[in-house]
Amino acid sequence: MDSTDIAFAGAAEQARMLVAGTITAPALLDLYHERIARVDREVRAYRVVLTERARAEAKAAQERLAAGERLPLLGVPIAIKDDVDVADEFTCYGSSAHGLPPTADAEVVRRLREAGAVILGKTSVPEMMLWPFTETIAFGATHNPWDLDRTPGGSSGGSAAAVAAGLAPMALGSDGVGSIRIPSTWCGVFGLKPQRDRVPMDPHEDARCGLSVYGPITRTVEDAALFLDVTNTQKAPRGGFVAAAARKPKRLRIALSAKIPTTMVGRVGRAQQKALDGAELLLRDLGHEVLWRDPDYPAWAVYGHVLPRMWRGIYDDVQHLPHPERLEPRTRALARLGSVISDRQLDKIRAAEATLATRVGSIFDDVDVLITPGTATGPSRVGQYQHRGGVSTLALVASRVPFNAIFNATGQPAAVVPWGLDDEGVPVSVQLVGRPSDEATLLSLSHQIETARPWAGRRPPVS
After folding, report:
1. Which residues contact 1 (CB under 8 A, 6 or more apart)?
2. How far is it, in rounded angstroms, from Cα 249 to Cα 322?
3. What is the per-residue pLDDT for 463?
4. 272: which residues sit within 8 A by CB, 6+ positions away?
5. Where in this chain does the record put each Amidase domain (predicted)?
């Protein structure tokens, strides 16, 4: 196995290699540092790469490995999205409006370190994690490893680009209205939005008015399951998530739908519909019962519930910035929208979540999993929305990504499974949505699809 093969091997396989002595933790870290220095000049997945600090962590991990210590991620490098606190490193949120470095790790980072992970760096985001593209005035644009003229997506664009380009085996993302699933789709990697409260959000509890969660972006389903095993705060499936992913799923009843949620404007592209049609054929071949059935999306769901929560969450977030005057104009525009939503209105909006979850979730009275396109179309070109305001940008980008945000509002888990490439060589995916707290079924089904249609060996041209 050469250095490139090792870089693309994934976190779980690297953990096994470290235990077997196939590679050392310092050598694995050096491999990624070398690749980042060479490849990330074009991709710009990282806002900052940790060097000496990471080397010290890798050296300590190797000493523990040599002493016979065994932890799930001991010595494995992990990239962290730049909206998550790493002690003594700036959390910039894609902006120059940020404050001083935090003095402590976020709880999810603490748990990753406890499992033995080496923190490799912090990945790029759009300002305040607002957009399905990763471009900022403060730090520039991140590019898609499959097509450098296009965005990797957002807001976890740097995390997805890093994993896709072989610049990290696993990356932490956050997902408030699709921010893990969108870039994972367009970068051709596996992305999982866990059940709300599955992964700890401390010290940013209730982020985006309860819409946002932390989750993994990985090369394999096993890697995502491993992430859940070391960060989970809730009841786990029998034997843990890695065991659940490895189990063959029972015969499932699966609904497919290309319906765009009511009041949203958009059209599903040919490649995205083809992926959904292909999923139907494959799932039938795998023995599952497959039917076409649309969820009951209320007319008020997006503009009366999801977006007001997002806007108010943006407003609340910018109130904690020491230099809000440095924010980009369209960020300030969306924050102003959030400022008109009073606490009383917000309470009323959030009280409707149970009704929304019941209506959308009613499809699970009769099926085990819902499958939709990962996105409606492919990614925008870098700079395509550069001179637009906040509202017009939102209106234009929403048509590309209509299938994701609704499930942030309901809180249930959802994952995107890489499917193939469109006519322009950019990845497409299908989105798997599960019952509340049922990541186990999503992981098991995703692994079954992965076995039938392997994707982890695909490498983008830039790699």
Report:
1. 9, 22
2. 50
3. 81
4. 258, 373, 374, 375, 376, 377, 428
5. 28-443
- Using an 8 Å Cβ cutoff, are 11 and 223 in contact? yes
Rounded distance between C-alpha atoms, residue 181 and residue 163, angstroms: 13
* Element holding 203 (H helix, E strand): none
pLDDT of residue 52: 97
* Beta carbons within 8 Å of 165's beta carbon, 6+ residues apart: 35, 39, 40, 43, 45, 145, 460, 462, 463
Rounded to an integer, what distance in angstroms lies between the CA atom of residue 456 and that of residue 218?
9
**For residue range 58-82, what is the model confidence (pLDDT) as tens digits?**
999 999 999 999 999 999 999 999 9
Cα distance from N-terminal residue to C-terminal residue, the chain: 16
Mean pLDDT over all residues of the chain? 97
* Residue closest to 360 by CA, chosen among 345, 343, 372: 372
pLDDT digits (tens, 9 = 90+) for 308-326: 999 999 999 999 999 999 9
What one-character DSSP code corresponds to residue 100? S
Strands (E), 116-225: 118-123, 135-136, 140-141, 170-175, 190-193, 213-218
CB 153 within 8 A of CB 187: yes
Total count of residues recorded for the chain:
463
* Domains and their CATH numbers in the chain: 3-452 (3.90.1300.10)
Hey, which residues are catalytic here?
A: 81, 155, 179
Q: Compute how many other C-beta atoms are within 10 angstroms of the C-beta atom of residue 286.
A: 18
Residue 1 has pLDDT above 90, yes or no: no
Distances (CA, A) of 226 to 11, 132, 262, 395: 9, 26, 36, 37
How far is C-alpha 324 from the geometric centre of its chain's CA atoms? Answer: 26
